[in-house]
């Protein structure tokens, strides 16, 4: 495919690198030539300096024969104008725009512009993570009667072996996350409080699992699938993401306090916001105390600066011991630092890039959810020809994935490692995010990069 990307910020660069690696012809346009440094030395596409909506520049970029255009500059009006020109003048088949300000959704919709709103994606994802309890349902498949869940081990299960919960006929363990990392395990591996298990579970067996976890009822706080309404939330940062997150939580009945060093930022909060707003530095202990951090059930650090978010989240997590702490991450290059510190985070750049890629490429392998502190992704794809007849063990080893379950002829199958894949099997598997490109290439019927 010939793809034009206007804007070489973090999202544009991330998008361009992925598409070029996959063998697509990529042209990146940005008015600031220094922005192309984000592409790195391995990028093999074309870069052009100029204004995104300049028609002559777009012609030079090959827009008349382009298959897709992604308008991902930092300005909504620029993205809107570029998308309009690409769609209505040059008739590009697939045009996607990035949207910052959620208030402009209606305008984009009326103009027929397909978009990805990073602010909303990020706010909703952070809210989901904040409200998740010790039992997280990552994906439900009601027609097959199966769920993929992430469970946190409590004291009642200390020193139990995985074999005591691994039952191929009812539920299957896919991953063990312990000590801030995924670890290799077998049936004899012992569990410790705080460990997290990802499992494929037949519907209706969550009560069996709750009993295993020492809880009599799945509604118990220890194994709740959601934090109770009315809990207290403190949010650091009142930019677009922080304001939208605060409004959503406030509307749902949670007690919300927002902190920002710039008092004028509070104007972004809606008129219906019923919480508190406090001016001050989010990592300052006195400010946090004024915000009621000692009574907080949840905390989200969503300022515009990665270092501030990490520092604030660390203070809240280790000094004030708030049960649930989430940090916003801008720069994907800092992922390893956040993960090494065991910080639960949401990366807006990755969310927007994934949303753009899904609309541009319509991938064969769909990402359903992220888990284990974003170190694993749940993926859904139809068995490609290269896997037909091969054992599940072969697929798991070569694609570095763990198969959760198969849908075969409309029925649920929990496969053993000796089971062989069949044509048209639908595969639900767990894999590291870095392995998704290889799985996608297999799902498309090719094993190497290139067209």
TrEMBL record:
Signal peptide: none annotated. The keyword Ion transport applies. Residues 1-117, 230-353 form the RCK N-terminal domain. Keywords: Ion transport, NAD, Potassium, Potassium transport, Transport. Residues 135-215, 365-445 form the RCK C-terminal domain. It comes from the Bacteria. One of its GO terms (molecular function) is potassium ion transmembrane transporter activity. One of its GO terms (cellular component) is plasma membrane. InterPro entries: K_uptake_TrkA (IPR006036), NAD(P)-bd_dom_sf (IPR036291), RCK_C (IPR006037), RCK_C_sf (IPR036721), RCK_N (IPR003148), Trk_Ktr_HKT_K-transport (IPR050721). PANTHER family: POTASSIUM CHANNEL PROTEIN 2-RELATED-RELATED, TRK SYSTEM POTASSIUM UPTAKE PROTEIN TRKA. This is Trk system potassium uptake protein TrkA. It comes from Candidatus Solincola sediminis.
């Amino acid at each position: 495919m010939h793809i034009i990307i206007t804007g070489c910020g973090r999202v544009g660069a991330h998008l361009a690198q992925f598409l070029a690696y996959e063998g697509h012809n990529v042209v990146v346009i940005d008015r600031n030539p220094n922005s192309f440094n984000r592409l790195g030395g391995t990028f093999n596409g074309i870069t052009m300096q100029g204004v995104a909506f300049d028609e002559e520049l777009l012609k030079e970029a090959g827009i008349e024969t382009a298959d897709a255009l992604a308008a991902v500059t930092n300005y909504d009006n620029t993205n809107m104008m570029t998308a309009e020109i690409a769609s209505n003048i040059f008739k590009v088949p697939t045009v996607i725009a990035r949207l910052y300000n959620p208030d402009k959704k209606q305008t984009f919709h009326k103009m027929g512009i397909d978009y990805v709103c990073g602010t909303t994606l990020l706010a909703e994802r952070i809210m989901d993570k904040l409200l998740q309890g010790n039992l997280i349902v990552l994906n439900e498949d009601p027609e097959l009667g199966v769920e993929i869940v992430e469970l946190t081990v409590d004291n009642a299960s200390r020193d139990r072996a995985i074999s005591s919960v691994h039952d191929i006929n009812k539920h299957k363990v896919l991953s063990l996350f312990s000590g801030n990392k995924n670890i290799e395990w077998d049936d004899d591996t012992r569990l410790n409080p705080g460990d997290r298990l990802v499992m494929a579970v037949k519907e209706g067996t969550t009560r069996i699992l709750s009993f295993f976890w020492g809880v009599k009822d799945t509604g118990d706080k220890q194994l709740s699938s959601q934090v109770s309404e009315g809990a207290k939330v403190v949010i650091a940062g009142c930019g677009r993401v922080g304001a939208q997150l605060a409004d959503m939580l406030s509307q749902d009945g949670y007690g919300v306090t927002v902190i920002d060093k710039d008092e004028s930022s509070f104007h972004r909060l809606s008129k219906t916001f019923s919480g508190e707003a406090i001016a001050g530095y989010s990592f300052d202990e006195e400010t946090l105390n004024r915000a009621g951090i000692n009574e907080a059930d949840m905390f989200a650090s969503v300022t515009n600066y990665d270092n501030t978010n990490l520092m604030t989240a660390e203070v809240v997590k280790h000094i004030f011991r708030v049960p649930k702490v989430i940090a916003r991450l801008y720069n994907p290059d800092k992922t390893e630092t956040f993960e090494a510190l065991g910080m639960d985070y949401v990366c807006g750049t990755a969310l927007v890039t994934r949303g753009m890629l899904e609309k541009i490429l319509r991938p064969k392998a769909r990402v359903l959810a992220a888990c284990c502190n974003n170190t694993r992704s749940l993926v859904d794809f139809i068995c490609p020809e290269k896997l037909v007849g091969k054992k599940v063990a072969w697929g798991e080893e070569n694609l570095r994935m763990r198969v959760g379950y198969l849908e075969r002829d409309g029925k649920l199958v929990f496969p053993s490692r000796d089971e062989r894949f069949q044509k048209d099997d639908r595969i639900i598997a767990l894999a590291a995010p870095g392995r998704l490109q290889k799985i996608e290439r297999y799902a498309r019927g090719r094993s190497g990069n290139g067209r």
